[in-house]
Amino acid sequence: MKKVILLFLLAVMALSMAAAEAPVLFIYEESNENIDPWLEMLRSGLASRSIAYEEKSAAELEGLDLSPYSSLFLYGAVMAFTFKEPIRDWLDTEPDLSEKKVSLLVTANRWFLDKYRGQLQQRLDKHGAETIDTISSATKNLSDDEKAALALKALSAIP
Ligand SMILES: Cc1cc2nc3c(=O)[nH]c(=O)nc-3n(C[C@H](O)[C@H](O)[C@H](O)COP(=O)(O)O)c2cc1C
């Protein structure tokens, strides 16, 4: 009898640990020399908060099963006056984001920041996401320390 109770308790513990470890899906536009430093800052911020996560560039998302993830973190960057935006292209494939908690960080050197943030937000709303945080910033006048602080701030709302 004691063995049965022990096994039951172990099973309950295993199930609750699995539930607690549902990873965050960290989505970014693409890897390039401007975006890579942000990926590093965001990875180190996620690690410093001990957040379990998996990361994908937007091009890797087609057909991905989103069911293991309850939270998404999106890092969008304005590229080519918003003509080239892989995250937006993915959102246009109509992924089902209902019951997904989404944090959004958008940066631009200086142009079209609000336009792109709005485009992402509109698509997130359309696909049923619950946006828990949106931060956007022009980066033109930011020091490296200010960029790192912004990256950390953007991660702070992840549940
Ligand atoms: C291919 C490419 C195109 C870009 N086009 C724009 C743009 O149209 N408007 C803008 O404000 N920034 C543009 N940027 C700058 C990025 O938005 C910027 O590098 C990114 O937000 C990260 O900021 P940081 O480079 O200041 O760290 C572009 C960057 C790349 C790599």
Average pLDDT number: 92
Domain count: 1
Rg for CA atoms:
18 Å
Give start-end ranges of low-pLDDT stretches: 15-19
Instruction: Supply the CATH architecture.
Output: 3-Layer(aba) Sandwich
The ordered string of helix (H) and strand (E) elements is HEHEEHEHEH
Stated plainly, the CATH topology is called Rossmann fold
Helix content: 40-55%
- By CATH reckoning, the class would read Alpha Beta
Strand content: 15-25%
- Going by CATH, the homologous superfamily would be Flavodoxin domain
Main sheet? 5 strands, parallel
Task: Provide a quick synopsis of the model.
The protein is of the alpha/beta class and 159 residues long.
Describe this entry's structure for a reader.
A five-stranded parallel beta sheet has the order 2-1-3-4-5, sandwiched between helices. Helices cover 40% and strands 21% of the residues. The longest helix is centred in the first third of the chain and has 19 residues, at 2-20. The chain has one domain (23-155): Flavodoxin domain (Rossmann fold, 3-Layer(aba) Sandwich), CATH 3.40.50. Strand 1, helix 2 (36-48) and strand 2 form a beta-alpha-beta unit. The termini are far apart. The protein is an alpha/beta fold and 159 residues long. It has helices at 2-20, 36-48, 86-91, 113-126, 144-155, and strands spanning 24-28, 53-57, 71-77, 101-108, 130-138. Mean pLDDT is 92; it is low at 15-19. The chain contains five helices and five strands. The chain binds flavin mononucleotide. The site of flavin mononucleotide has 16 residues, from strand 4. Residues 1-18 form the signal peptide. Keywords: Signal. InterPro entries: Flavoprotein-like_sf.
